[in-house]
Amino acid sequence: MTPAEIRSTVSSVLDSTPVLDIHTHTFAPWFGALGLWGIDELLTYHYLEAELFRSRDVTPEAYWSLGKREQADLIWETLFVRNAPISEATRGVVAVLKAFNLPADAENLNEARAFFSARRIDEHVDAVFALAGVSQVVMTNDPLDPAEAPCWQQPGNDPRFLAALRLDRILNRFDAHWEVLQAQGYAVERGGGGRTVSEIRRFLSDWVGRMRPRYMAVSLPDTFLFPEDSLRSRLLAEAVLPSCRENGIPMALMIGVRYQVNPRVRLAGDAVGRADLRSVENLCRDFPDNRFLVTVLSRENQHELCVYARKFANLMPFGCWWFLNNPSIVSEITRERIEMLGASFIPQHSDARILEQVIYKWRFSRRVIAAALSDAYVLLESDGRTVTREAIRRDVERMMRANFEKWTGCAAS
Ligand code: HDL
Ligand code: ZN
Which atom of ligand 1 lies closest to the CA of 219? Predict the structure, then answer.
């Protein structure tokens, strides 16, 4: 194939391969109001709130005192009317509006609001997933979240939405949440004494049975170390990782957050720090029967993560997370991964918080992944190997879903 034929083949294969989106904050319709969608939610995304405070003379406190629609109106006027929406997150809203043939340059949100308010969520999910080229998404499910826990009393069954058991409140903030565990009937103790470890193991077993999660997950600070003399380290080693092995599911480690550096801006208040990835080295080496999904938040940690993935076959790097999910950085990360790992990694997840975000996040990601992948095949062709459409399809299928399905045991290995 010529380079031009390779590029068009890669793009058409990527566009026609439905992805399994392995990490999102979306919820199936049976979670009710927890599932965010529509133009007001799209505009009050914390990425856009952060950008608002840089472009408008409004304090966070004044902004938080507004209602959701007023907040959305202020963001629309500031970032889309008074300024060109050239950032990643603002351009994303433009792409979503265009996908539904809505004007992206309107002075107000009247037409967009009328459109979304007329949508019925179940059909809307199908339409959004079709536009995004997504077959399934993995949610982020927190059994200690008081808003979510009741939903699991009578769980629905929506095969488009898979569960992931999120453990931040237990592993990072046990002192603030141990009493919630106690109230759910687990004999845990402040500080982790007594039967805490075995009771956390029982808690995990109960929730795996209830949620059927594809993996367990935790986000970790840039200061995360393993092993260390801490309750987190003990719970990870003695409860969480054994439970993952017992249930045949991976552990997702999402490392490098500096939490709430500016609490005034709430969800937008987290930042990034370079982590010591020897923690990943220790975990992969000392727990060879566990499988790890790992994503890191610092661009400086990405190359190390690639190297570790070459050392440990039980390490699956995934995604260009959060502050890295920008075309310039996604390109760099994807290229170094292809160069060092071939097709043995998971290039991306959307991290969508609002349903329709999967449309733009996957459109933007496919564009960048296609360019990186095409360059690799053009080099292969010029170095002496004929590239076929079938070879491209096989690699794309592997990266966009089969690697994950194999890793989580939901497909024949
Ligand atoms: O911890 C996480 O899963 C992060 O993705 C946070 O939710 C973060 O606020 C986010 O939405 N990043 O895209
Ligand atoms: Zn996330």
Answer: 1
